[in-house]
Design a protein that fits this description.
This protein has 255 residues and is an alpha/beta fold. It is built from six helices and 14 strands.
Length: 255
């Protein structure tokens, strides 16, 4: 399974438009991996593209990655930074593209983007049930992500043969799911380094969870405005953590 990080930022791109803070000034000056668009990944398998979350930056992200169309879309939840890109669905999706999500997210999509009803086939995700797509087994599991009310949020685990990885970009906490134990790669919320914020765990929390699960490798995503720029964050992670690093836009890993 090839994983392409389309975006690794949080609610707004980095640098933030009009922001003059130290982090944003550094990012404008240095550029490169320090720049982040909103979090999303594509899994490439069997010449198919599975998109997880559809950020407002999706058209630029897909073009940058050289991806012309997607075959399946999976949503973690209905917050705007994870679904707003569906407004551009007709630009990158084939007809009858499968869209998997929990009930509240599906209802939101139908209400917000009814003009795309003919393009998508909506499938309500059942928690802890295994689905099979293009030779990959996937499973959605509930995670806690509290932000201004209750929005049901899921993480995903993907397996092909004996290789598995999990994707949990937004979470305040993560229970010790047995099926995640010993996972090859855990991609997890890294909004801030040492403090919880707006429904997001800290990188320190995420690292402890990864170690409890005996994850072989940890990558942080959904990295926010109050975290360090990538250059500095990468150095800090090398010093503090064992086999845990921040992801960056355009990063490609294989599992």
């Amino acid at each position: 399974m090839k994983i392409i990080f389309l975006g690794t930022g949080s609610m707004y791109p980095l640098p933030r438009k009009g922001c003059g803070c130290e982090v944003c000034r550094y990012i404008r000056r240095k550029g490169g991996k320090n720049k982040r668009t909103r979090s999303s990944i594509v899994i490439k398998v069997a010449k198919k593209n599975i998109l997880i979350d559809c950020s407002p930056d999706v058209l630029m992200q897909l073009k940058r990655a050289g991806i012309k169309s997607v075959d399946v879309i999976l949503l973690t939840h209905r917050h705007f930074d994870h679904v707003k890109g569906l407004a551009f669905l007709d630009k990158f999706a084939k007809r009858n593209v499968l869209l998997f999500a929990r009930k509240d997210a599906l209802e939101y999509v139908l209400k917000k983007y009814p003009f795309h009803a003919g393009l998508i086939k909506l499938i309500e995700l059942k928690l802890n049930r295994w689905y099979k797509l293009f030779g990959i087994n996937l499973r959605a599991f509930k995670v806690k992500h509290a932000l201004r009310g209750r929005v049901e949020t899921v993480g995903y685990v993907f397996c092909r043969g004996r290789k598995c990885f999990a994707y949990v970009p937004d979470a305040l906490d993560l229970k010790r799911h047995v099926f995640l134990r010993g996972i090859d790669l855990l991609i997890i919320d890294g909004c801030c380094f040492d403090k919880r914020e707006f429904g997001h765990m800290s990188m320190l929390d995420a690292y402890r969870i990864g170690k409890q699960l005996k994850a072989k490798k940890i990558l942080f995503t959904h990295i926010g405005h109050r975290n360090l720029p990538h250059d500095k964050l990468e150095k800090l992670c090398k010093y503090v953590f064992d086999n845990a690093m921040p992801a960056y836009d355009g990063m490609i890993v294989e599992v």
